[in-house]
């Protein structure tokens, strides 16, 4: 078994500006309906949650990019970051045959200014 990892950090203000500038366009390009519903439920902290999910998608892409024949063969919405009922984040990924991915472990964190994501991918 092989392991790959990915990490990303982003300023929450950049995500907030993108959402406010483009309104629905940015949200609908990057996030699934489930992700939007979750983040919007966080009211004043919604931008922190959007930023954490954005960082997570970037981190997943970094971890799996060597498995992709063409870097454009995956879209933002092919990587979905959700939470269990207990609040633990997990990743749903939409790839043909999952490219041998057996597990993706993810950790998200955010503060007032930044959001960060770390992933470890297990590959058969």
Q: In words, what does this structure look like?
A:
- The chain has helices spanning 12-22, 24-30, 33-40, 46-64; strands at residues 2-11, 79-83, 89-93, 101-110, 114-123.
- The protein has a single domain, classed as Alpha-Beta Complex (Ribosomal Protein L22, Chain A), CATH 3.90.470.20.
- The chain has a 3-stranded antiparallel β-sheet with strand order 1-5-4. A two-stranded antiparallel sheet has the order 2-3.
- The termini are close together.
- The chain is of the alpha+beta class and 124 residues long.
- The protein is built from 4 helices and 5 strands.
Per-chain topology:
Blueprint (H helix, E strand, L loop, with lengths): L1 E10 H11 L1 H7 L2 H8 L5 H19 L14 E5 L5 E5 L7 E10 L3 E10 L1
Antiparallel strand pairs: 1-5, 2-3, 4-5
